Amino acid sequence: MKRGMNLKNTKVVMTTALDDFQNVKKAFDYQCEAYLVKPITKDKIRDIFIKFNIPIP
Question: Which residues of 21-54 are buried (b: 16+ CB within 10 A; e: fewer)?
């Protein structure tokens, strides 16, 4: 996704209900940088913001 586009600073976060190893591995193989399993809470989103040094509104 990032190739050929000016998205080198874009962070890819996979959100899904699936948490089995194969799905997680595949997401990271496709350059996903974080993986969130539903239900997604405010705390999980906050942790992602902190991980990527994104200012929290």
Answer: eeebeebeeeeeebbbeeeeeeeeeeebeeeeee
For residue range 24-46, list pLDDT tens digits in order.
999 999 989 999 999 999 999 99
Say whether pTM exceeds 0.90. Answer: no
Backbone angles phi, psi at 26, to 5 degrees: -60, -40
Domain 1-57 belongs to what topology?
Rossmann fold (3.40.50)
For the chain, the structural domain boundaries read 1-57
